[in-house]
Design goal:
This protein has about 160 residues and is mainly beta. It has 2 domains: about 1-60, no CATH class; about 65-160, Quinohemoprotein amine dehydrogenase alpha subunit, domain 2 (Lipocalin). The chain is about 15% helix and about 40% strand.
């Protein structure tokens, strides 16, 4: 470096400042609407700095796991109608999108074990054992509703609210 004029070669600090400024300008111009952004190729000195992190004003990445948005753990009370009618009590434990719990039907005093899944607002669950009752439906806040089948044959509709 001795003997070179100061303006002959920009220092790394100058290049880093230029790169951070360019990245900040690009990040602040991006839309948060989720659309695809297009950018032009930056000037050659900025292209040399490839590991500069984006500015802190950039939005954090979002998760595509809607199961966490719905928490079904706890007690639920409901009704069912159709081929069979009555009331029921549900008790859920939710881990991610997996459901595990019990259902007590008004016509059956002993609780039956349930397993199921929730994906977004869609729910499906059923009894474990010989009864083979399956439920499908949707969840909205503290209520859910859908249809049930007994042994693969149509059964009717059901609905429940969180207690």
């Amino acid at each position: 470096m001795r003997g070179e004029p100061i303006t002959a070669r920009p220092s790394r600090a100058v290049l880093l400042v230029a790169a951070v400024g360019a990245v900040t300008a690009l990040a602040s111009g991006c839309s948060s609407s989720g659309g695809t952004a297009t950018t032009s190729t930056p000037p050659a000195p900025v292209a040399r700095v490839t590991s500069t992190p984006p500015s802190s004003s950039a939005a954090p990445p979002t998760s595509a796991a809607p199961a966490a948005a719905v928490n079904l753990s706890g007690s639920w009370s409901g009704r069912y109608g159709g081929a069979f009618t009555g009331t029921f009590k549900l008790s859920w434990q939710q881990t991610g999108s997996s459901l595990r719990g019990t259902i007590t039907l008004s016509t059956e005093p002993n609780p039956l074990t349930l397993t199921g899944t929730v994906t977004g607002t869609a729910i499906s669950f059923g009894t474990v054992g010989s009864a083979a009752i399956t439920y499908t439906g949707t969840v909205s806040g503290s209520s859910m509703a859908g249809s049930y089948q007994v042994g693969g044959a149509p059964g009717g509709s059901w609905s429940a609210t969180k207690s």
